Amino acid sequence: MRFVLTVIFSLSVFTSLFAALSCDRPPARTPDELRFINRGDIITLDLNQMSYVQDFRIAMATREGLYTYDPQTFKPVPALALSDEVTPDQKTWTFKLRPDARWSNGDPVTAADFVFSWRLILESPAEYA
For residue 77, what are the β-bridge partners? Predict the structure, then answer.
């Protein structure tokens, strides 16, 4: 009986190794595919309500704001903003948006979109606001 179990176990191991080694090429990927590994479930995609790392990781990978940062220096660099003007009292900031900025459905990104977002932040505070 022990001999039979040893043979069955050996054949199972051999078959598993053969199957694993017979895969000589990785699965095909399409150029428009994004694979992203997160350690936890996504709680929300609402930027104004996020407080978990996995949510912020997805947001950073899929969204762009007025500015982003240089990955080498961590200094801010324009993203959707072409330029900005600041009044001497620093109470009014005027941003010029990139004309090619579009939402995923093709609609242009407008100043009204940013106004809506800022007002939403002020009117619906998040958990840690």
Answer: 68
CB contact set of 64 (below 8 Å; sequence gap of 6+): 79, 80
User: pLDDT by residue (tens digit) across 76-100?
Assistant: 999 999 999 999 999 999 999 999 9
For residue 14, pLDDT over 90 is answered with: no
* 94, amino acid identity: T
For residue 50, what is the domain's CATH number? 3.90.76.10
How far apart are alpha carbons 51 and 43 in whole angstroms? 9
**What's the number of domains the chain is made of?**
1
Contact 82, 96 (CB under 8 A): yes
E strand map for 10-114: 67-69, 76-78, 81-86, 93-97
pTM (2 d.p.): 0.61
End-to-end CA, the chain? 68
126 or 44: which carries more pLDDT confidence?
A: 44
